């Protein structure tokens, strides 16, 4: 079996959380560690792809020096970085957990605890993946869906609405799946296919995802 199965392909991968500033010391974030995206980037690079990895704040380190790693903080920065490269990639995989909302205004100074309650107005962030779907031409576009209920229905809805070629579903109802863990349990959907996988390490999940992508590219 050929090992450099992605030779000649350029892959863009997003990873990690985004942090949306509230004031100079606080932010709205989420539990994403970046592991899933880093595993995908390493595996794609091992298969010979040119890899562009755009990650939100994460403690993950990239040992593979061939991976082009860009670190960003907020959803807006991630969007900007993604579209610096998007036109020229063959495959894009969005594994980042992007904040759907951000504070409308970022306080210039640290907010003082003077009041018994505090309201922070949030406004919708750009949907990076949806924008990728709208601008899709040559790219094979893969999204993720992180769900807690009506998982399959929601994932298929995102596949459709965001104009994706494939979506990877992980559910927080499955033990060992989703955030932080070194393991994940996924289901993959295309418009016509559905495949369920066992719980395994994120490195092995990355192999399953890229095997599936390669299978789709041959069709
Ligand atoms: O980083 P780890 O700790 O290893 O955890 C991995 C993971 C759980 C974060 C990962 O496997 C995962 O599920 N990533 C997607 C998380 C998510 O935000 O899912 P979602 O269903 O809310 O979003 C759907 C898709 O739209 C995702 O591909 C997301 O990247 C994208 N999106 C969402 C909102 C937004 N404003 N812009 C986006 O691009």
From TrEMBL:
Obligatory cofactor(s): FMN; Mg(2+)
Keywords: Decarboxylase, Flavoprotein, FMN, Ligase, Lyase, Magnesium, Metal-binding, Multifunctional enzyme
EC id: 4.1.1.36, 6.3.2.5
Residues binding CTP: 100, 110, 126-129, 144, 158, 162
Residue ranges of every copy of the DNA/pantothenate metabolism flavoprotein C-terminal domain listed in the record: 6-214
Role summary: Catalyzes two sequential steps in the biosynthesis of coenzyme A. In the first step cysteine is conjugated to 4'-phosphopantothenate to form 4-phosphopantothenoylcysteine. In the second step the latter compound is decarboxylated to form 4'-phosphopantotheine. Catalyzes two steps in the biosynthesis of coenzyme A. In the first step cysteine is conjugated to 4'-phosphopantothenate to form 4-phosphopantothenoylcysteine, in the latter compound is decarboxylated to form 4'-phosphopantotheine.
GO molecular function per UniProt: FMN binding; metal ion binding; phosphopantothenate--cysteine ligase activity; phosphopantothenoylcysteine decarboxylase activity
Record's protein name: Coenzyme A biosynthesis bifunctional protein CoaBC
Gene Ontology biological process terms from the UniProt entry: coenzyme A biosynthetic process; pantothenate catabolic process
Region (Phosphopantothenate--cysteine ligase): 11-219
Catalyzed chemical reaction(s): (R)-4'-phosphopantothenate + L-cysteine + CTP = N-[(R)-4-phosphopantothenoyl]-L-cysteine + CMP + diphosphate + H(+); N-[(R)-4-phosphopantothenoyl]-L-cysteine + H(+) = (R)-4'-phosphopantetheine + CO2
């Amino acid at each position: 079996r050929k090992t450099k199965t992605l030779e000649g392909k350029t892959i863009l991968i997003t990873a990690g959380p985004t942090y949306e500033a509230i004031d100079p010391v606080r932010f709205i974030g989420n539990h994403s560690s970046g592991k899933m995206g880093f595993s995908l980037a390493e595996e794609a690079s091992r298969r010979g792809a040119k890899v562009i990895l755009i990650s939100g704040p994460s403690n993950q380190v990239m040992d593979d020096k061939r991976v082009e790693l860009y670190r960003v903080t907020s959803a807006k920065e991630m969007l900007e970085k993604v579209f610096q490269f998007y036109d020229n990639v063959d495959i894009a995989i969005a594994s980042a957990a992007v904040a759907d909302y951000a504070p409308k205004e970022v306080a210039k100074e640290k907010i003082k605890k003077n009041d018994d309650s505090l309201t922070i107005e949030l406004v919708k962030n750009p949907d990076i993946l949806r924008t990728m779907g709208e601008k899709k031409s040559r790219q094979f576009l893969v999204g993720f869906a992180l769900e807690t209920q009506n998982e399959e229905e929601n994932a298929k809805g995102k596949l459709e609405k965001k104009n994706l070629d494939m979506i990877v579903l992980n559910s927080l109802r499955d033990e060992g799946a989703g955030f932080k863990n070194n393991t994940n349990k996924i289901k993959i959907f295309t418009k016509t296919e559905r495949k369920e996988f066992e719980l395994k390490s994120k490195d092995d999940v990355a192999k399953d995802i890229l095997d599936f992508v390669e299978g789709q590219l041959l069709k």
